[in-house]
TrEMBL record:
Gene: LOC102733261
GO MF annotations, alphabetized: GTP binding
Pfam entry (one): NOG1
PANTHER family per the UniProt record, alphabetical: NUCLEOLAR GTP-BINDING PROTEIN 1
Region (Disordered): 1-39, 360-460
Name of the protein described by the UniProt record: Nucleolar GTP-binding protein 1
Ranges annotated as biased composition (Basic and acidic residues): 1-11, 30-39, 399-411, 431-444
InterPro entries: NOG1_Rossman_fold_dom, NOG_C, P-loop_NTPase
NOG C-terminal domain location: 221-272
Amino acid sequence: MPGDHGQETVGRETVGQETMGQEIVGQETVGRETGGRETEGWKAVVDTPGILDHPLEDRNTIEMQAITALAHLRAAVLYVMDLSEQCGHGLKEQLELFQNIKPLFINKPLIVVANKCDVKRIAELSEEDQKIFADLQAAGFPVVETSTLTEEGVIQVKTEACDRLLAHRVETKMKGNKVNEVLNRLHLAVPNKRDDKERPPFIPEGVVARRKRMDIGEPRRKRERDLEVELGDDYVLDLQKYWDLMNSSERYDKIPEIWEGHNVADYIDPDILQKLEELEKEEELRTAAGEYDSESDSEDEEMGEIRQLAKQIREKKKLKILQSKEKNTQGPRMPRTAKKVQRKVLEDEMRSLGVDMDDKNNAHYAVQARRSRSITRKRKREDSVPPTSVAGSRSCSRTPRDVSGLRDVKMVKKAKTMMKNAQRKMNRLGKKGEADRHVFDMKPKHLLSGKRKAGKKDRR
């Protein structure tokens, strides 16, 4: 709580000092102790608990906190009284409490707030009760009628408290010892009168009209907070209804932030419609001038051939890409020499490379195919004759693959030895289990070398 930047609301219980504090601040009352910091130009409002009129020793802890705040805080005091007496205490009892705690108001700006004027006003009270407020005004305490329900007089109370608090601060500083040092550095410049022409202050018409509306108590515009309290759970915050657009029906149009990879905000221009209209007019003038009527010059024969060749190249590239995708299989791949070559595929490839395949019957691959393939003719069926010999000649068996290509027994032995040596490492690793670990160096020298050799100190 700043030392001399505060306001305190005091009064009996249920007279409305809590609601008064809420209306002054514009927020709900904080019902707990919180930390704060002092900021120049700000005012703090302290809502003290309701105080009962009984001796000091009979007050409870909450009431003593209010008494302590009144005694120690340098602030403007707002003493709230209930005109309607709906709090359960009459005006005389409220005045007695005021007289009881009056010593706490010494050297503090004090304002008497007559609350709940929407129920009953001072003019509607009896003469005896009206005399109470007349005596307070005669004693130098300003009386302001307010209503936290209709917000009548709340701004006046706030303004009066701030002005009196500021005047009290200035007066206190003027009585200090440092005032002379400050006054020597201050100079009030007053301009000389230039002529006899009157130059009254200029107040805009909007400000004058707003003051008149405030004086007659015109209902103010509903804020979003009021709508939230009124609607409850059905309230939805809608800020687009305040958008100032040329066409009000466009407020709820959905505009994306990113469209086709472009940031829409980069293309927003207030004059975009005007520029579009100018471009359309320019286009109409060009069309009327006949700029788009002239036909393009016919291309020569060489350019046509180039374009045709470029088209063929593009088609060829597409076919190559498709063929490459077909070849990119995940299965096992065979070498080109092991694949069966079809004659038609070979002829098509040769033609695509520019080879003349007209005399293909005399080509080497056709001649080779005729040599390697015997002409099979149907053999005439012979009569079955019993075999003349008991045993025939035995055919030779095929050479095993592991010895094929080796010229003698010595070379076969050498190949088997090389195979065993190459397999030895894999066999050794195949016997390795999960628990087999080899530690290569149990005593690394960079950790164990040093001067401390006595005893068991084997480290540095």
